[in-house]
Amino acid sequence: MNAVTRRLIAATAVLLVVTTTIIGAPAARADDYPTWDDVAAVRGDEAATQQKIAEIEALVSRLQSAAASAQQESDAKAAVWVEADTLFQEAYSRTQKLLAQADEASVKATESGRQAGQIAAQMGRAGGGDITMILFSDSKNADSLLYALGAWAKVGEMASRISDKAIQDRNTAQALTDQAEVAQDQLEALKADAEAAFLAAQAAATAAQTALDAQLSNQATLQQQLAVLTERRAATEADYLAGVEARIGTGASLDAGEISLAGWARPASGYINSVYGWSAQYGSSFHKGVDLGAGCGQNIYAGSSGTVVYAAGGWNGGYGNYIIIDHGNGVQTAYAHIIDDGILVSAGQQIVVGQNIARAGTTGNSTGCHLHYEVRLDGVTTDPVRYMSDRGIQVG
Q1: Upper half-sphere CA count for residue 276 (Cβ side, 13 Å)
Q2: CATH no. for residue 312?
Q3: Domain region containing 346
Q4: Which of 356, 354, 355, 314 is nearest to 337 (CA)?
Q5: pLDDT (tens digit, 9 = 90+) per residue, 242-290?
Q6: Separation between Cα atoms, residue 73 and residue 208, nearest integer Å
Q7: What is the model's pTM?
C-alpha cells in the first residue's frame, strides 16, 4: 500500500466517522481505519514541519542579528555622511564669501587705480613745464603754487596707498579663495564618498530587513501548516486506536505485533513464564529479560523500528538463535531462543515496528518454546514489562 493510498484511507476513515456521527451509519470495518503506516506518515509530516520551523527560527535569529548590524552600520555611515555634508556646506559658504570679498576688493582696486590715474594726470597738467621758471615768472603766486604742489603730492601718496591696499586686499582675498576652493573640492569628494557609503549601507540594511521579513512570513506559514498537521495527526491517531479497538475489542490489550501510539509493539503472544530480575526459578540467578510463552513457530515481532545489529544462530551463550535491534538513543531490544531457521532478518537491516523478524523456538538454554525478550538502556537491562507498559503495551 503506497503513501497516497494510505492517506486516502485515512481521509475516508475520518469521513466515515463524521458520517456515522451525523446520520447513524453502520460502524466502519476494521480495515477501513488508518494503519500504523498512516500514523507514522502524518507524524513524519508533523515532525518534518517542526524541523523546518526550528531551522527557520534559527535562521530568523541570525537574520535579526544581521539586520540589526546592518542598520547600525547604516546609521553610522549616515552620521559620517551628515558630518561630511556639514563640513562641505560650511566650506562652500566660506568660499562664496571669500569670492565675494575678492570681487569687492578687485572693484575697489580698479576704482582706486582709476582715481590714482586721474590724480596723476591732473598733477601732470598742473605741473606741466619747468617748476623753477614758473616760480620766477609768477612770484606773487609762489606760495599758493607750492601749497598746491604739496597738496597734490599728499593726494597722490594717499591714492597710491589706497591702490596698493586695494590690490593687497584683492590678492589676499584671492589667495584665501583659492585655498577655500581646494578645501571645498576635497570636502566635496569626501562628502560624495560618505554619501555613497551611506547609500550602500542603507541598501544593505533594507535587503537584510527584507530577508528577515520573508523568513518571518515563511515561519508564520509553516506554523499555520503545523497546526493543520497536528490536527490531522491527532485525528489519524484517534482513528487508528478506533481501528485497533474494532479489531480486538474495547479495553482489550494489544495483540502480538499490534502497535501502540507510542510506536511500540508487543513482541509475541503468550503469558509471562518468567519475570525480570532475581528469581529462584533460575537458582537465585538474575534473569535479564522476560519470557513470553509463545508457541513453537509463532511469530516474533520487532518491538520498535531500528537497525538489526546482531542476528545469528548457534548457542550464543545460552540464548540460542539470537537477534539484537538498535532503536537509537541507547535503546536496544533482544530476542532469544528462536527456532532453527527462524531468523527472518540479517545484521545491518533496517526494520520497522511490528515487523515479523523471527519465529519462537527453544534453542540455547531453554526447556520449551518461548520468547526471551530483553530491553537494554545504554547497555543495561531494564524490566521489559514496565518499559513496554509505559509505551502502551501490556506484556503477558
Answers
A1: 18
A2: 2.70.70.10
A3: 272-389
A4: 314
A5: 777 676 555 556 677 778 878 898 999 889 988 998 876 555 688 899 9
A6: 12
A7: 0.49
